Structures are given as C-alpha cells and as structure tokens.
Amino acid sequence: MSDEMNYTPIMVQIDALPPLPESVMKLEELFTLGDPAPEKVVEVIETDPALTVNILSQANSAYYSFQREIVSIQQAYMLLGAARIRTMALDFARNRVFDIDLSPYGLSTAAFAELCRLQSNLAFHWIMGVDMRRAKHLIPLAFLMETGKILIAREVINQGRVEEFQKDLKEFASVGEVETLYTSMSTAQVNALVFKRWQLGETFTHCMQYLESDEQPPQELLFDVQALRIIRSAINVREILTEHACEKALQLARKASLDPQKLESSLDRVRKKRAEMESGA
User: Fold this and answer.
1) CATH number of the CATH domain containing 106
2) Spatial separation of the C-alpha atoms in residues 153 and 10, rounded to whole Å
3) Which of 117, 170, 192, 265 is deepest in the core (most CB within 10 A)?
4) pTM of the complete model
C-alpha cells in the first residue's frame, strides 16, 4: 500500500476505530485458533450481559421461529451452531462500534442490516451443503462483507457530496469504482484494513484483498473469494435476489465450476424466507 493511501480520510477513520468489545475479542481469539469447544464459547458470551441479551434476542426473533423460547446461550448455540453465534456476536460488535448512516447508498439502517443478514443467510444455506469447514468462517465473513460502506458513507457525508455520489451510483457500472472515485478506496479495501485492525484473522483480511481485485487469489483462498463474489452478485446494494442478480450469480458459479443447482436451491430458499418475513407469515 502506498504512503499516499495511508493518509486518506478513510485511513484516519480506521485508525480512530475503537477495539471490539472485550467479549467479542475473546471469542475471535477462540475461533481463529480453530474449532473452539462449545462450552468455552458459551462461557465467554455469558461474561458479557449485553452480548448475552443481544444474542438471545436475535435467537428469539421471528426469523428463526423456534417453537419454544430460547432461554440460554447454550441452548442458542446448540440450535444455531457456532458460525451463526459468531455472526451474531460480530453484529453486536459492529453496532456498538459504528454510528451507521448509509444514506449515501440510499439505504436505511434497517435495510443495511437486512442486506447483511441475507448475504450471511445465503452463505449458510449454500456453503453448509458444499463445504462445511469453510462455511464456518464464510458465514460471518459474508455478514461483514459490506462493513466498509459505513466508513465510505461517512466520508461522502463529510464531503457534502451525497447527491452527487447517489447520481454516480446510478450511472457507473461498478459501485467500487464510484467508492474509489470519492474516497480512494472501495468497500473491500476498507474491509481489509478494518478486519486487520480488529484482528479478525488472516482469512478475513486476505479474502477482502482479492474480492474486488483482478488478481487471481491463491489456491487456498480461491473458493472463499469465488463464493463471496457469487453471494454479492445475488445480494448487493443495487439488487437483492432479483431474477437478473440471481442469474448473474448462477453464471459465476458455473464459471467457477461450482454446482449451480445447489446455489439455485439456496437462492430459492432465501427468497422464500424473505417473502414470508415481508408478508408476516
């Protein structure tokens, strides 16, 4: 990275970011070492009352529709699994760290949260059936994939160029191109630096370094990067699970020699669940 990049306003924002809550940092230490024992994950979460309440609230939300109330973190862990519990903890942390305003992208805070949740849910339904080992980090990574937009939006607001930014988003072919034009960095580039600062692990950082790059990822990251690109094609700030977006995702899957039928089935499942939530069913 050039010295010039180190002095961009976005970099100043990243340098000023507070650390993750201590409980989430301890969880990340466990997950970056491998597959932590469930009891250790539960123990760390239960040391933080706010995190505990947040995870139980999410577990009892209408989205999961469990027949019985989830009353303990151990129960939530057994029903939801490690990847989703980790995602919930990172969601809690991000909401604590950031004052989220995505108005330059035309998104409300609720719409942004829904976008991230849908990306993570697609990762869950699709990748769990393709590579369970990789799904454990791709599910939370898919959830965090648009985090950089929070800082980019803040910088655009600070510049007083929201309307100009919104106009260019409609006219440019690439969202990342518009982001770079205004802030010298794209969402993925910002993510890489934020994830490094938060010590989320090399996989998180390295995937972001290749997500929007023309450079071929190393073999050990190839599947991860391809999967994230496919998920982002289907669900993004411009299109969410439209016929066009889903077909583009399926084309990318074919090009990557990934089974399009498994992806299509997962897309249908996520779309159906979204429709049910919107109708209140």
Assistant:
1) 1.10.3210.10
2) 10
3) 192
4) 0.92
Please report which helix (H) or strand (E) contains residue 21, including its range. none
CA-based nearest residue to 32, from 148, 222, 205, 191:
205
Cβ–Cβ < 8 Å for 24, 85: no
Cβ pair 16, 34 in contact under 8 A: no
Give 3-state DSSP helix, strand, coil % of the chain, rounded to 5: 70, 0, 25
pLDDT under 50: residue ranges of the chain: 1-5
pLDDT at 3: 43
- How many folded domains does the chain comprise? 1
Q: Which domain holds residue 57?
A: 3-279
Per-residue confidence (pLDDT) for residue 195, from 0 to 100: 95
Helix pair 148-159, 175-183: axis angle to 10 deg: 50
Residues contacting residue 125 through CB under 8 Å, at least 6 positions apart: 266, 269, 270
